[in-house]
């Protein structure tokens, strides 16, 4: 498959159930975390209702949804611009290793490069997920050298 085989579009309310199911599957596959589907559903709807929170993109292959990612935004005072964070990446097993994520990434990269207010693209990846790391490196991304810390409040 080539990028020409893919159509990238913004997600809408009709995609919520699929995005929810994909997010639940992704969390289980990558982190063995069981997410509450109702909470995930509400979280997706919150993004769709408030575009300042982010955006979901869906990759379709001949009209069939094949994968997704979510963009969120982080202001950088150092660069006077927004970092676009790629999150919630999921490719349906039937479309893995077929260029689905690459098509999504190239779409995001082209949009970011065309937007003067965007200073770059970032994502985080599980440190043991070598397959994903190789994919990101093949697409031209590099390890930024940061470690991530968190303090959950719920």
From TrEMBL:
Gene3D superfamilies: 3.40.630.30. It comes from the Bacteria. The keyword Electron transport does not apply. Residues 14-154 form the N-acetyltransferase domain. InterPro entries: Acyl_CoA_acyltransferase (IPR016181), Bact_Acetyltransf (IPR050832), GNAT_dom (IPR000182). Coiled coil: none annotated. Pfam families: Acetyltransf_1 (PF00583). Keywords: Acyltransferase, Transferase. One of its GO terms (molecular function) is acyltransferase activity, transferring groups other than amino-acyl groups. Signal peptide: none annotated. CDD domains: NAT_SF. This is N-acetyltransferase domain-containing protein.
């Amino acid at each position: 498959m080539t990028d020409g085989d893919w159509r990238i579009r913004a997600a809408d309310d009709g995609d919520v159930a699929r995005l929810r199911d994909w997010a639940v599957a992704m969390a289980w596959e990558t982190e063995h975390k069981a997410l509450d589907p109702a909470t995930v559903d509400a979280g997706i709807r919150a993004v769709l209702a408030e575009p300042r929170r982010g955006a979901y993109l869906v990759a379709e292959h001949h009209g069939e949804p094949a994968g997704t990612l979510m963009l969120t935004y982080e202001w950088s005072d150092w660069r006077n611009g927004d970092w676009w964070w790629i999150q919630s990446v999921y490719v349906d097993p039937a479309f893995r290793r077929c260029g689905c994520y690459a098509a999504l990434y190239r779409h995001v990269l082209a949009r970011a490069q065309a937007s003067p207010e965007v200073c770059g693209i970032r994502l985080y990846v599980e440190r043991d997920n070598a397959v994903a790391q190789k994919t990101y490196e093949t697409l031209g991304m590099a390890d930024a050298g940061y470690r991530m810390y968190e303090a959950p409040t719920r």
